[in-house]
User: Fold this.
Amino acid sequence: MTDESYVKIKDVLNGYHKDKEVKMRGWIHRTRSGGKIVFMVIRDATGTLQATVKKGNLPDEEFEDAKKALVESSLILKGTIAEDNRAPGGYELRVDHCNILQFAEVFPIVEDQSPEFLMDKRHLWIRSQKLNAVFKIRSTVVGAIHSFFRTNGFYEFDAPVLQPNQCEGGSTLFEVKYYENKTYLSQTWQLYAEAAIFSLEKIYNVGPTFRAEKSKTSRHLSEFWMAEMEAAWLNLHDLTEIAKDEVKYILKEVLKHNQNELETLNQDIEKLTHIANNSFPTISYDEALSILKDKENMNVEWGKDLRTIEEAKLMNHFDTPIIVTHYPLEIMAFYKPADPDRPDTALCFDMLAPDGYGEIVGGSERSTDLEYMKNRLREQGENIENYDWYFDLRRFGSVPHGGYGLGVERLVSWICKLENIKDAIPFPRTLTRFSP
Ligand code: 4AD
Ligand code: MG
Assistant:
């Protein structure tokens, strides 16, 4: 089906086919007709282009087909590319053959429909210019994650999706019937990654992650993609440096490959370029509380996690992402170790994005203290026998190690300034939605 003889709209708009006779294929994005002329806007994966169909320039029955074809009909067109500054993009196709492949029914999506309706019609709405741009950027982001880790000596490593244990708290587990037993959908790749670093030392993964998030927010999905890394011989500082480099590398790749999409989404390219080329500050949780108190007049009780509103207020004071380290140990997952110099805090970090997008990365060193981890799990009502395989990792050649996870949709939302994280993933799953 890849026939080189069909030209792509992007190339037409770049001026490659000016005054040439070409063949094109795609869909009708918009159409209006007046007597002897049909003005179409056609689209393919690469863009939209005006096509003018004039009676007399093509066989009569083809003209009639063009006239009656509705939006989203699929078609093959032949004609000449003409420069015309009245056409959006500066070029148009003057049609001399029009072959409608399928006459579409009346398309259910028109302007100003509710977000819920668009979610019901998601399988059709993913054709929109907005989502086309977002998913191209998402593709660059995921590609960049792979190339970042691979070029830095990390191996891609896969963990099971069906797992017997929790890692990030039992309350967000999705239970799955497993023959006569029960198991859970992966909340994180981490525990298996910790097993694998003893063999491969530096590993990463991008994969689907599941959390039964029982509240409706614009930042939480029930199924999302997490890009995680884990490596032996690293400390907290090393981890934060890698996370910063990774995010800057991803931004640079998006700036390199997605100028058009960023423009379609009205993004401030200069601002993103500034962020991609600047250093990201690191502060502690304590410093974050001081900033909130002194500059925002907001009192956060020491020991409480930062909520969305507090992350947003804190980020009023930064124009790049920042790293926040040393959250209170008490509120952290069982595997995060205490800082020996400040034992009520953990050797952990989050990366927060500006403009109210909040946490995009979370990571930590991993505890090597078996008794401590057992106690933490017991406190959470876990049966520690289920974790015995994990504890073996501390019994056979334990080494300092750590890792982090980056939320792919959180990052895409921030880069594209989406109002809701649901638009960062093709078919979102949330508390209230699991179809189409
Ligand atoms: O901070 P989290 O929970 O960290 C972990 O799961 C670690 N085990 C990762 C690791 O160290 N390997 O999740 C990591 C990131 C968050 O910073 C956020 O960006 C994203 O995953 N995330 C979500 N994204 C969308 N919807 C949700 N419900 C999310 N929960 C977490
Ligand atoms: Mg987190």
Summary: The two ends are 28 Å apart (CA to CA).
